[in-house]
Specification:
Radius of gyration: 21 Å
Distance between the termini: 21 Å
Strand order of the largest sheet: 3-2-1-4-5-6-7
Number of helices: 13
Order of helices and strands: EHEHEHEHEEHEEHEHEHEHEHHEHH
Structural class: alpha/beta
Helix content: 25-40%
Number of strands: 13
Length: 346
């Protein structure tokens, strides 16, 4: 008699989590029945890739979802910058109440959303440093699955024919207008001296409100032309980028990943101009400590960096070997979740 498949729920509302979810679904769908519940921006990103149900958090919605036996829940992590909680935190809490094995994929080391006061049974982390930090902070067991939010590079990219180098500024999910004005006034105070050396582009964060008009106005006041990129696919933007600027975006990891496999040069920097900026995002910049980007904390440092970048005087050792074990770690996780589900007695 053929044994019925066990049921696993996947959830996401963040784009990094959505990309991780794609990989979790891929390795688990042959052995398990997979149901996917999402909120925007993850829902909008995933809805045309496979069956993805939009979670609306309506009365009795959870009761209907959990009216069958669920054996595990794997959710993404979403910060509290824009929204305090959502589908991920709700499903993890419900799963814990029902004694279901729960997992949260954490793309930023040591970060978690504890708004609903319910840690998962396991955190899924990107590397051993993240495992150490998370277990110390939460006392929750962590499993290293690698950089599963990265997408496989399959496209044959063509280098854009231009004499100018490209700067891409990656947006962050904030609606704090004072932060935006302060940050971009500082940034343009330096970049205006190099406006003839670069083409400038801005890529909004999927959870960011329409801040580009304000940003464009600040650039225009310094006689700098900046365009909002029209590319829907992140890697299409990153391939021809020479210098990536953000505060602490995971885009820096995608940038290094693309460079590593396509053997392309480029630099990423985290420009964190003051303590207020750090306070808004409430994070120490571990990605810079892991050599995914160079952290810069003042206009003077930024000016020196851009000058040396143009003079080809930089010799910064960026992360090269971080991605090699992700496939192996993901396969090991597949074995571990089988063991966890079968030993849970659910």
């Amino acid at each position: 008699m053929k044994k019925n498949k066990q049921n696993i729920i996947l959830t996401a509302r963040d784009i990094s989590a959505a990309n991780a979810l794609i990989n979790f679904r891929k390795i688990l769908k042959e052995k398990y029945n997979i149901s996917v519940y999402c909120e925007d921006p993850a829902y909008n990103y995933l809805k045309n890739k496979f069956k993805c149900i939009k979670f609306k958090n309506k009365k009795n919605e959870l009761e209907k979802i959990f009216n069958k036996k669920i054996h595990a829940i794997i959710s993404g992590y979403s910060s509290k910058v824009k929204k305090n909680f959502g589908v991920d935190e709700i499903f993890i809490k419900e799963g814990n109440l029902k004694k279901i094995s729960t997992f949260i994929f954490q793309d930023y080391p040591g970060d978690f959303n504890f708004y609903l006061k319910s840690h998962p049974k396991y955190y899924l982390v990107v590397n051993e440093l993240a495992k150490k930090i998370t277990e110390k902070k939460t006392k929750i067991k962590s499993i290293n699955v690698g950089y599963v939010f990265l997408k496989k590079v399959t496209k044959n990219y063509i280098i854009s024919p231009t004499n100018k180098k490209k700067i891409l500024i990656a947006g962050q999910p904030t609606n704090n207008l004072n932060y935006i004005k302060n940050y971009f006034n500082d940034l343009t105070d330096v970049l205006k001296f190099y406006k003839n050396k670069f083409n400038f582009f801005y890529r909004p964060h999927p959870a960011e409100n329409k801040n580009f008009k304000i940003i464009k106005k600040i650039f225009n006041e310094n006689n700098i032309l900046i365009k909002m990129t029209q590319n829907k696919i992140l890697y299409d933007d990153l391939f021809n980028t020479d210098l990536l600027i953000s505060i602490n975006s995971t885009v820096a990891i995608d940038f290094n990943y693309l460079k590593h496999f396509l053997k392309k040069k480029g630099f990423a920097i985290y420009y964190i101009n003051n303590n207020k900026t750090k306070k808004i995002f409430k994070k120490i910049n571990l990605y810079s400590k892991m050599n995914f980007a160079k952290e810069i904390n003042s206009k003077k440092q930024l000016d020196k960096f851009v000058y040396n970048f143009l003079k080809n005087k930089l010799n910064f050792s960026f992360q090269k070997n971080a991605f090699n074990k992700t496939n192996l770690n993901l396969q090991n996780f597949q074995k571990k979740i089988n063991t966890i589900i079968n030993s849970s007695g659910i």
